[in-house]
Amino acid sequence: MQVKFNVIVAAAAALMAGSLQAQELVVKIGHVGPTSGGIAHLGKDNENGARMAVDELNARGVTIGGKKAKFELLAEDDGGDPKQGTAAAQKLVDSRVNGVVGHLNSGTSIPASKVYSDAGIPQISPSATNPTYTRQGFKTTFRVVADDVHLGGTLGRYAVDTLKGKSIAVIDDRTAYGQGVADEFEKGVKAKGGKIVKREFTNDKATDFQAILTAIKGAKPDIIFYGGMEAVAGPLIRQAKLLGIKAKFMGGDGICSGELPKLSGGAMEDGQVVCAEAGGVEGKAKEGMDKFKADFKKKFNADVQIYAPYVYDSVNVMVAAMVKAGSSDPAKYLPVLAKTEGYKGVTGTIGFDEKGDIRNGALTLFTYKGGNREQIAVVR
């Protein structure tokens, strides 16, 4: 009798477990960033932002279409390389992810976007700023930061109007991001009547800048703009100091990290570098960002570099669209995601225009003092 009772209990338990499993919805969120190579610390920062969002969503017990959702993060490394980026994108498509947050760089986000578009999978980039990304006619591409037209142009105007630059040199790393933001900076300078005295280029893996800096020194610029990432910008600033170049340095969000002073080998002087981050909050909204940074530090024992909050918001915006649509099926929640308006994230209010760009995107201007990054202003 006891044996029979145990069999019944076991059968009931199995039935209940099966029923619960049937009611649980597995949602796969893909993330891609360079977690190897010169900017691996930025890629890991992004991945941690995604992991934090996924862990919180699972702890909260989100339901989609009446089913409890279990979120899984599928993280891939693109090494900041376009070919590796498309391979990572295809791997996520083959894994049947419900959505993708990434990639970090414009140079990887743009080619990967076609892979996701062909598969009908929504992609939100937390940091790709090249305008081309959202201007290819794809319905699946979104971003939560302002683009280079806004970022580069604003910095160009700031160089002339506020920093009173008379002779300005421009260097870029020939990537989609670096060259794009440098081109827009140059347009912004010229629109304000500023003078570009030299335009040089390097690459995103270079370590020796003697030749281009010597050429630039002869033009006697008072401002040097670098379009690229901080792994190159730091050594560039250090070598410029060794050559006796006294110019101020400017750059976009690619150089605007807490690691820049260290990467420059302590060569930066207070106020010498001005950079802009695509995004920004002020007033009471800043309390949410401060809390996020504190929670992030507690969870990962690491400070936020640049983009982790934007990754965090991207994951949550994507899931909010799934909840509203009552489905994690990309074809069903994509139209809802495209109509996102007024979402309150830690990086500010998020809404998308018809191209998938963030509406009224903010920029935050920073400088460095005592080896620490200090906010100058938030502009729109």
UniProtKB/TrEMBL annotation:
Record-level GO BP terms: amino acid transport
Keyword presence, Transport: yes
Signal peptide as annotated in the record: 1-22
Pfam families: Peripla_BP_6
InterPro entries, alphabetized: Leu-bd, Leu_Ile_Val-bd, Peripla_BP_I
Keyword Phosphoprotein in annotation: no
Keywords for this protein: Amino-acid transport, Signal, Transport
Residues in Leucine-binding protein domain copies: 27-371
Alphabetized PANTHER family for the sequence: AMINO ACID BINDING PROTEIN, LEU/ILE/VAL-BINDING ABC TRANSPORTER SUBUNIT
Similarity remark: Belongs to the leucine-binding protein family.
Record-given protein name: Branched-chain amino acid ABC transporter substrate-binding protein
